[in-house]
Q: What sequence folds into this?
């Protein structure tokens, strides 16, 4: 007995112990056998089972679902035998179910209920939502979202986000978003792409400049090109896509400008190809910048692509079209990497942060705006005894998380993407600040903590905004531009962290920012989690209000 979907792994299910309060009567029908579950959408599930030989005598069946957050069986759903699809709309998206039962009735009475459940490491799950917003997202998704019908889940009104069409039947394990397309890997390791794929960015074997719905890479019209490998991670660049397979190999497709796909030429690749120069290495992570790429293999950093500003870290400004090891980091074991439009970051297992590339606006965090073509350790974190665990790069700003979950930012604050404003009465940090018409403008040459972002799980930067995911599954953001406007329903910039209240009903489990857009994966909250979320959100909003009042007092001409 296997579940075809809605579980994290293809595993066998077995019957749970039948409750003792069911009587055994010979005249009653035998219980159903070979129970299977197949999803129809994020809110519909189809169950099937084998009926006994005297199936014509059966009148109806009864199905019960047991959510993981409930101790007792909820109200059962009674349906006729031919109707095998059941609605899960009363449960939030992403609800996990510990078990379900089925029993059938004939003219004599009901059979005993047969309970089936997953092993502890997996569970029946209504699929999580995959939401996207930003430049071109709502326009390109609207037609396909309508085609999904009323069964497709809808985000809360006012969130500014759109459900990525075609993903309501997918169990996404990893996702990424680029300039004009989205890529994802499902639990079966299949690679999917969506959006516009000029120069082969979608990996479908053709130049797809027009918007496309989600399709498995290899499912082109002629089905000539194939990707018969199991993927586990995916990263989108500028019109190119990278996929790390289960055997830790790197495949890529798309625009070959500056050799960004790593195949040693500038020719475009319309279907995924193996990056041959890395076949002897196990790839752990990939990060795509504007026109360059960083890669991590067992603590070693590799880079390739455009190097005009020293962002490759090789000590020069030469462009390379194949992966080259960053020799300056040979003495450290790197655990995270990030690449911006013209600069790069990494942090090692000892908590040190390194930066290189273009330094305008202080995006390198080294106390100046100088360019560096070799990695430099950020002594500011050493002097403050700060242990960095995660880094991210925007176009002209950078962010990091320390081991206490505190977010640090530095670089350009031209749209408020640093998440804080200087106290005009005491400026203890080297910065330059002015007040613009539509944003607060300043630059930070060294890292500065964001007071309202603590207990942070992940930080990700877009071109001119920063998104923070905390341990409560809340999404906070600050900055401006197309990637923030849909959430605000406004074109104003946000210089202080703002809680995305429209998404509080969901637990955000992951978020990835692209140049001018973002995509998030979220699940429904259990009743207990909803209660906790409301209390935690109240505390967060109180802290935000305190900071907003300070800002209004300091800068009355730009009230929040």
A:
């Amino acid at each position: 007995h296997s579940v075809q979907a809605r579980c994290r792994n293809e595993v066998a299910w077995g019957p749970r112990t039948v409750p003792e309060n069911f009587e055994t009567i010979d005249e009653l029908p035998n219980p159903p056998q070979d129970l299977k579950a197949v999803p129809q959408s994020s809110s519909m599930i189809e169950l099937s089972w084998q009926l006994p030989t005297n199936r014509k005598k059966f009148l109806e069946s009864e199905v019960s679902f047991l959510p993981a957050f409930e101790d007792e069986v909820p109200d059962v759903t009674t349906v006729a035998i031919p109707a095998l699809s059941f609605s899960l709309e009363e449960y939030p998206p992403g609800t996990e179910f510990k078990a379900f039962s089925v029993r059938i009735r004939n003219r004599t009475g009901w059979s005993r209920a047969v309970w089936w459940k997953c092993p502890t490491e997996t569970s029946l799950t209504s699929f999580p939502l995959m939401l996207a917003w930003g430049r071109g997202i709502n326009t390109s998704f609207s037609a396909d979202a309508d085609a999904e019908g009323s069964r497709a889940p809808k985000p809360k009104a006012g969130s500014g986000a759109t459900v990525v069409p075609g993903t309501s039947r997918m169990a996404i394990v990893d996702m990424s978003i680029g300039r004009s397309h989205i890529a994802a890997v499902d639990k079966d390791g299949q690679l999917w792409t969506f959006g516009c794929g000029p120069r082969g960015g979608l990996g479908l074997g053709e130049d797809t400049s027009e918007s496309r719905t989600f399709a498995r890479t290899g499912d082109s019209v002629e089905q000539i090109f194939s990707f018969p490998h199991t993927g586990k991670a995916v990263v989108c660049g500028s019109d190119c896509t990278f996929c790390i397979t289960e055997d830790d190999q790197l495949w890529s497709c798309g625009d070959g400008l500056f050799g960004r796909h790593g195949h040693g030429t500038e020719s475009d690749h319309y279907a995924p190809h193996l990056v041959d120069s890395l076949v002897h290495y196990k790839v752990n992570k990939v990060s795509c910048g504007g026109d360059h790429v960083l890669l991590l293999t067992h603590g070693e950093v590799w880079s390739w692509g455009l190097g005009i500003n020293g962002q490759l870290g090789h000590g020069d400004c030469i462009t390379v079209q194949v992966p080259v090891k960053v020799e300056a980091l040979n003495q450290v074991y790197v655990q995270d990497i990030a690449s911006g439009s013209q600069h790069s970051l990494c942090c090692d297992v000892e908590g040190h942060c390194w930066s290189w590339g273009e330094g305008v606006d202080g995006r390198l965090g080294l106390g100046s705006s100088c360019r560096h073509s070799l990695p430099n350790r950020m002594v500011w974190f050493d002097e403050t005894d700060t242990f960095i665990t995660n880094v991210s790069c925007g176009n002209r700003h950078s962010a990091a998380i320390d081991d206490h979950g505190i977010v640090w930012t530095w670089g350009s604050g031209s749209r408020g993407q640093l998440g804080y404003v200087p106290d005009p009465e005491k400026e203890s940090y080297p910065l330059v600040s002015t007040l613009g018409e539509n944003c607060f403008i300043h630059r930070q040459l060294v890292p500065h903590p964001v007071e309202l972002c603590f207990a942070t799980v992940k930080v990700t930067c877009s071109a001119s905004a920063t998104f923070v995911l905390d341990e409560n599954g809340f999404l906070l953001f600050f900055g401006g531009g197309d990637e923030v406007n849909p959430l605000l329903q406004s074109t104003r910039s946000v210089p202080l962290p703002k809680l995305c209240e429209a998404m509080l009903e969901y637990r955000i489990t992951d978020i990835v920012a692209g140049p001018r857009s973002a995509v998030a994966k979220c699940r429904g909250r259990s009743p207990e989690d909803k209660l906790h979320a409301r209390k935690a959100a109240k505390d967060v909003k109180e802290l935000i209000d305190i900071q907003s009042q300070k800002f209004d007092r300091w800068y009355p001409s730009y009230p929040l």
About this structure: The chain is about 10% helix and 40% strand. Helices lie at 137-147, 379-383, 485-488, 527-554.
